[in-house]
Amino acid sequence: MDNLNQATDESSQQSLKKTSWPLIVFLIIVLIAIVFAWQFTGNKNSPTPIIVEQPEPKPIPVIEPEIEKDNISPESVVEKPEIDIIEEEVVLIESSLPSLNKSDDWIKIKLPEITWRKELLALIVDNDMIRRFVVFTDNFAQGSVVYEHSPFILPAVKFAVQTVGDNGQTIVQSTGTAQGQKNVLQWDENTSKRFSVYVDLLRSMDSESLVQWYLEAKPLINEAYSELGYEDDFTNTLQDAITRVLDMELPKSSMDLIQPSVMYKFANPELEALPDSDKLLLRLGKDNLLVIKSVLLEIHEKIAQQKNGVN
């Protein structure tokens, strides 16, 4: 009986095992389906992801210009244009100049810098120098010579005619009729040497430095020029005066003189009819005039280059 019961139990267990195994497999399949459905449907709450915090890079600080007023709009904060800087420099240069009435001391400091013949600076009249230069140049450009406004002191040696012999008699030639006879005097070439020191002073000046000094003093020069009633640029007048010298030609014939009164005059009516500025150039003599032309030509070209903006 016991053996029968045991056999019955074993048979029941085997039958149970056969019955349980498909059920377990079914349950596993159902469980897997539920997991898949839970993962891929939107009807569930998302699992909280594990976030590994990475340190954020620190931003590079941007240094902005300080603005004194808080109400300034961004549109108004712009860089200052370069032309303003140039204008500020020009203002600084002009503000460094003295007034016209006090410019003599400033010029006395400048003049020794442009010549190596400093001992010849004594030839320059040292009062109201800019006004003298402007007035004399303006008159010279128009053919007149105003000696009281000359920038230079007058020569110590006076004009003379040629003399011969121990008694100092002048060489005299008679011309014209007996009633209208005139004494013709010979030109003394040595008398032109009295202007040589003035020419040496001009020749000793560095033309580049002279032009730069002229441009630096231009505001004062134009101020003195406006005092004469002019409104244009003085440089035009200066160039006219220089051109008058450059265009001057010495006559090929002798420059005989007559003395109808205290003053000498040219015997040739054409020479006597020349403007006073041209007659002054004749009295300088050929050699001096050629040197002056050479120096003034160089100065004239440099001023023209500066005026036209050519470096």
Largest sheet: 4 strands, antiparallel
The chain-level structural class is mainly alpha
Total E-strand runs:
6
Helix content: 40-55%
Main-sheet strand order equals 3-4-5-6
**What coarse outline follows from CA principal-axis ratios?**
elongated
> Mean pLDDT score, rounded?
76
Q: Report the order of strands and helices.
A: HHHHEEEEHHHHEEHHH
Query: Separation of termini?
Result: 138 Å
CA gyration radius, whole angstroms: 53 Å
Helical segment tally? 11
Portion in beta strands: 5-15%
Stretches where pLDDT is under 50 for at least 5 consecutive residues are: 1-8, 35-54, 67-94, 163-181
Can you offer a commentary on this structure?
The protein has 311 residues and is mainly alpha-helical. It has a domain at 98-307. Helix content is 49%, strand content 5%. The protein has eleven helices and six strands. The chain has helices spanning 2-40, 82-95, 103-110, 129-141, 196-204, 207-216, 218-226, 234-247, 269-272, 276-284, 286-307; strands spanning 163-164, 169-170, 172-175, 182-185, 257-258, 265-266. The strands form two sheets. It has a four-stranded antiparallel sheet. The chain is elongated and about 160 Å long. It starts with a helix and ends with a helix. Mean pLDDT is 76; it is low at 1-8, 35-54, 67-94 and 163-181.
